[in-house]
Amino acid sequence: PQRWLAQGRGSPRLVLVVVFVALLLDNMLLTVVVPIVPTFLYTTEYEGANSSVAPAQTEPAPPALKAPPFFSLFSYFDNTTVTVSGSDSPLGVSNGTESSLQAPSSPPAPQRGCPEGEEFLTKENIRVGLLFASKALVQLLVNPSVGLLTNRIGYHIPMFLGFTIMFLSTVMFAFSGTYTLLFIARALQGVGSSFSSVAGLGMLASVYTDDFERGNAMGIALGGLALGVLIGAPFGSIMYEFVGKSSPFLVLAFLALLDGALQLCILQPSRISPESTKATPVSTLLRDPYILVAAGALCFSNMGVAMLEPTLPIWMMQTMCSPQWQLGMAFLPASISYLIGTNLFGILANKMGRWLCSMIGMAVVGISLLCVPLAKNIYGLIGPNGGLGFAIGMVDSSMMPIMGYLVDLRHTSAYGTVYAIADVAFCMGFAIGPSTGGAIVRAIGFPWLMVIIGVTNLAYAPLCWCLRSPPAKEEKMAILSQECPMQTQSYTRQKPLREFPLTEDSDVEEENVE
User: Fold this and answer.
1) What is the CATH number of the domain that holds 249?
2) For residues 275 and 125, which has the higher predicted lDDT (pLDDT)?
3) How many CB atoms lie within 10 A of CB 298?
């Protein structure tokens, strides 16, 4: 085993496995709460409050409210006797029938099992949206610092810190019983997710220097993200319905421990291995219009599904009267199609053009969002959600490699900062979407929310044309022309790149070469 680990630590494939598992668990925790939180808050706050008030109202009821006596009325028209409950008001009696009419003292039961408390559910849109957005907001603030940290100390230690924080957040979710504790656990998850995603994607970009191989690796890593989204929501709804609230989080905590053991064996997170080239400042990257266009595509395409997460389950409870297990299963078509899209277009996007792939993807995102309010039941959501997930997979699998491509082409080849920007764009979608989506639903309704974000994606899609052939900086063009004249598909760093620093002998070998 020691010999196998020593050989495997320098393998890019094992690094890809580590990143895949980290993104898988992060996004399982991201989506497992989607069907749990709305129903959990409804059960604990609305039904709990009503159940505590109901006994106080029924205890002082006087004995006179018992079942009224029955009287017999004789009909001279057809010689029949009808038994009715006692009442002071005259009663209409139909011919030849015998009935017992109850006093209208109790309110009618909700039809088709719809939850009561329409006003509570409307207000809950905002609270649930803010809770979901807290993770992205915290991640948005932490990402730039993590990007700078990875340039200084490397990717291994931040990756392991992300696992540790993620484990603590998962355990806190399992035992939180109030809205405040759930909010804190969600925000803590944002810190851990920032470390894992920025360090993981930067690590992949530094290991896979060839543009084609990098695109394939990013597609596989995003497949882990997609698989987490795929499993999370259905897994959470079924476990919450039939086992209990804590059960899905305890399972995720156990899987997180296995991920930590995998990182200890492969990454050796005690070692500091900074980037070999000086990273481009964040301010310089943010002034690059091509990076901003790519970041905007990531933001707006993911904002659509981010708005659906807190609002779609509540809309289904109000209009479709859906049971708890359906609230998570509604996201299953989007998750499956996202998994297919990321793996398929990780390869195809390089052949057909990543700019074209992302432009088509954003157009399909907009059309799918416009079709969501047309659904009358859960089966009507299969088509729109499936198209939405497939299209977001097209955008993500195209834009993530483009970010590394643009840094190689126009800046220095240090990837922590640029993937921090990519993650910031991703988090802006998941921060703005839930936080504003609940307020928009309360103001103008769920269908208009889908119209707004759908039209926004359709309007942004043509901007992806700008990424068709971005120009290289003059100094980078001189370096690239020495290696591969007139070609921009594979790039080399400004300094010779040593082997991935995962073995003890890598530093000694580098000194011997120098």
Assistant:
1) 1.20.1250.20
2) 125
3) 27
